[in-house]
Amino acid sequence: MKTPSKVPAAQSVLRLLTHLAAQRGPTPAAHVASALDLPRSTVYQLLDVLVEQGFVVHLPEEHRYGLGIAAFELSSGFSRQEPLSRLGRPLIAQLVDRLGESAHLVVLHGRDVIYLVEERAAHRPSLVSEVGVRLPAHLTASGRALLAAVPAAQVRALYPNQASLELRDGRGPGSRLELRAVLDRVRTDGYATEDGEITPGIASVALAVRDHAGWPAAAIAVTFARDRFAAAHWPQIAQAVMATAAELSRRIGGQPR
């Protein structure tokens, strides 16, 4: 049971901003009041203050409200301070110590994943992934974990045709239908895998890290030599990755699944 906030006004402001951030576009004040179960007068008062401070923008012709420039600046500050990397690095290191295999943390950028943290286990094969490296999301376990967690419409927009699905040595989903089957499998299993599609003989298991709105903020993957673990052992690896992803999600105020 949650303890009642000692600063209810501050809590209402944060709930309002969080709600606006989760919407696909500007929203009427009445919808905000209904969603947050707040009096309309209170919502209008909060919105007036937030508009004045630049955190919310009012679209008078549409009678709607959306996030403002000041909210965007907060997002930029989040990127500059690299909290995902700072919070994720010790957790990834612990995961590597636990499993004795290499692990990494990535974010989705367009059709690529970008590596933020890379921890190599001792005496393990060298990998193509390093901090700052980009790889096709649909070919990596971490990218598949992220793609499986976003709406189908976003996946269709990222991969509008077969040409957008890059292959490596002829391996990987070569059509949107094949990609859909891969992502359906991720949702069914609860974790994503990749088997030799980036580097022959190397496999990975990955899960998404959820943010406060339940959206995938990042993904964590463990990468290992394919001959070290039979596929029947991969769910056990996924359990370890899941615990790490859940902890990072908790640290960023997210909702692990």
Automatic annotation (TrEMBL):
Pfam families: HTH_IclR, IclR_C. GO terms for molecular function: DNA binding; DNA-binding transcription factor activity. PANTHER family: HELIX-TURN-HELIX TRANSCRIPTIONAL REGULATOR, ICLR FAMILY (PTHR30136), TRANSCRIPTIONAL REGULATOR ICLR (PTHR30136:SF2). The lineage of its organism: Bacteria, Bacillati, Actinomycetota, Actinomycetes, Micrococcales. It comes from Cryobacterium lyxosi. This is IclR family transcriptional regulator. SUPFAM superfamilies: GAF domain-like, Winged helix' DNA-binding domain. Keywords: DNA-binding, Transcription, Transcription regulation. It comes from the Bacteria. InterPro entries: GAF-like_dom_sf, HTH_MetabolicPath_Reg, Tscrpt_reg_IclR_C, Tscrpt_reg_IclR_N, WH-like_DNA-bd_sf, WH_DNA-bd_sf. GO terms for biological process: negative regulation of DNA-templated transcription. Residues 7-69 form the HTH iclR-type domain. Residues 70-254 form the IclR-ED domain.
